[in-house]
């Protein structure tokens, strides 16, 4: 939950530019301490599985690997914003490679995510790169079929259970309607690279062994990723507004959570908990977000969302325009 503010253009906003400077050394170090452990965990799971050890050991390692997969995705995410490296070419190359590791096409996801940044919290520009959100009035006016579909999408079992597999194995394999050539190309190249990896590992260790490792890693990593994306904008005190009242700064400060996580989870999630700052200035690389937060006094007024309190967000389903808050299906009765 964030503190409400009506300041459209705070005087300290220009200070964010200082933290938007990328650093090649820091980026390379993050790649080293993220991708190498991720691949090492994969090697460990292959060894355990092919040498007859209990599958429970593999599952335990898959949880750790999922954490590093999430961190890899954060590096991919920074490349999409052009912030991980100072070089645009480096961001593109690393973006493609980390996109393959996380089953996500670089150009395609970058386009959709940039639309998300430009429209987050705008009731009249929903539907691209966000989680389906209806207002109370829209839900009441909807037919039974649409209500049922919406309830299914917002059901935690569907959203966090089937969502990861649907997103990474199916949805990310296609370009969106109206995609440009470079976006189509990124989808095709990513799919080809994944096909080569899957066929090669399937031939080397067996497809059953490969799937017994890949599916849990994708599931747990995707579950964490979808939960983070969900709680970044779906929480008590979030912000939604109609086009004429919508404001980018308010959307960032009031509609993007400051998710305060334990240090180990903050590291694995690449400081994405400072999401209010990220939406204020997407070009700030993940390794500068915490320093930015502690250096600008005005940002200390943002009330953090704790891990415990974030769990309440599961029961928030609709935006009530009259009450200006998220409400549950149950509240409609």
Low-pLDDT stretches are 1-7
* Gyration radius, rounded: 20 Å
The 3D shape can be described as globular
Q: How many beta-strand elements?
A: 5
Query: Main beta sheet, described?
Result: 3 strands, mixed
Question: Helix/strand/pairing class, anyone?
Answer: mainly alpha
Strand order of the largest sheet: 1-4-5
How do the helices and strands line up, and which of them pair or pack?
Elements: H1 24-50, H2 55-80, H3 88-101, H4 106-119, E1 134-135, H5 136-141, H6 144-154, H7 156-170, H8 181-205, H9 207-233, H10 248-255, E2 259-260, H11 263-268, H12 275-280, H13 286-295, E3 305-306, H14 307-310, E4 318-320, E5 325-327
Parallel strand pairs: 1-4, 2-3
Antiparallel strand pairs: 4-5
General description of the model:
The chain has 333 residues and is mainly α. The protein has one domain (22-332). The chain is built from 14 helices and 5 strands. The chain has helices at 24-50, 55-80, 88-101, 106-119, 136-141, 144-154, 156-170, 181-205, 207-233, 248-255, 263-268, 275-280, 286-295, 307-310; strands at residues 134-135, 259-260, 305-306, 318-320, 325-327. It has a 3-stranded mixed beta sheet with strand order 1-4-5. Helix 4 crosses helix 8 (181-205). The chain is globular, with a radius of gyration of 20 Å. The two termini are 25 Å apart. The relative contact order is 0.17. Residues 1-7 have low confidence and may be disordered.
